[in-house]
Amino acid sequence: MVSSLKNKFLVLGALFLFVFLANCSNNSNKQEAAIADSANCEKPKPLNPNGDSELALLMRKMMHASESMKEMVLQGNVPKEFPEEFMSIHTAQPTDSETKKASFDGFASSYISNVKTFVSSPKEELTKNYNAMITACVNCHSEHCPGPLKAINKLKINE
After folding, report:
1. Distant-in-sequence, close-in-space partners of 96: CB < 8 Å, separation ≥ 6
2. What b/e sequence results for 111-144 when a residue is b if at least 16 CB atoms lie within 10 Å of its CB, and e otherwise?
């Protein structure tokens, strides 16, 4: 009986040692890979296969801001100010110059107007004005760049 118990402890000890050594070896490989990556000084791959344009980067900031604003609205908080950086939507260079059709500036102006209305909303109109801002995004992306529509539609708040 004592011999059987000793064997179980030896097996468990060996198993523990094996897992521990394998994990250390795996972490070492990850560290070596990280060092190799930093030595090559490669930039992370852009989200867009054509590269990250000014407009694409701005749109990602707008998306992130909209997600934050949605949380504020759900908590009943009114945003304090208009994100001035969003004004560059008119001048930001797109990834593909064909993306900005003649109607783009009208959509951009509508978005800016809706954002300004939203950030000056009384509490009782927060959800309505937030959704109007998101609808302005949907309207533009329906015509110009439909790729992110699914993600944009998820930003809407059910009234």
Report:
1. 50
2. bbebbebbbebeeeebbebbbbbbbbbbbbbeeb
Neighbouring residues of 40: CB distance < 8 A, sequence distance ≥ 6: none
Q: Provide, for the chain, the percentages of residues in helix, strand and coil under a 3-state DSSP scheme, each rounded to the nearest 5.
A: 70, 0, 30
Q: Which two tokens stand for residue 132?
A: 């109007």
Q: Return all residues near 94 (Cβ < 8 A) that are at least 6 apart.
A: 53, 54, 55, 56, 100
Q: Model's pTM, two decimal places?
A: 0.67
Alpha helix (H) residue ranges in 41-153: 54-74, 104-119, 126-143, 149-153
Please write the tens of the pLDDT for every residue from 66-86: 999 999 999 988 887 878 899
